[in-house]
């Protein structure tokens, strides 16, 4: 994806983006990719040190916000923005457990972060975009929003909810020139998942389900986000871009 020339449809010059969960992993890669394409990026995370290293690597293009996405003050801060062109609604969590053993604390944790906070962050961003009459919202889904999986009942439920939210938002906001899509990755190698892949049995099980035969990388997801955020996707809304190596096609 070549976005180095001024005429490239992937350039985001003069655009303002906000990426949640930008301190590590997929969110960090998305913030870096959007900044490389010319966007001014508000990078949101709870750990200040992560944001400092991110901002220092992209002088003048990354604005660090140390915040908790579940905090009402964070939502108010979004709504106070004069302009917001792109939202990458990335924060989420998981705690795999057998369905009959899911604890209510786990249920509440995953629902609150994966669904409730995602809804409220998207709502706050959309209110800014409605006033300016344009925008692109990218909700971070998962291949698990399209299939089911053992020990992931709550996570699958929340990611299916994200797909429904994406479609409903897209239909309602299309007339205002606000596009809403999701990105649905497979297992991606991040600092969080890398120890999991060191288990040969788990690694082989994942690989066996991906027709392309290898684990996804954070840049694979970031490139998909860039496409949906950019003018190249001007007629794309209400869709889910699967970055899953064919997992859900089987």
UniProtKB/TrEMBL annotation:
Keywords: NADP. It holds the Pfam family adh_short_C2. This is SDR family oxidoreductase. It comes from Candidatus Seongchinamella marina. The keyword NADP applies. InterPro entries: L-xylulose/Carbonyl_redctase, NAD(P)-bd_dom_sf, Sc_DH/Rdtase_CS, SDR_fam. Belongs to the short-chain dehydrogenases/reductases (SDR) family. PROSITE patterns: ADH_SHORT (PS00061). Homotetramer. The keyword Ubl conjugation does not apply.
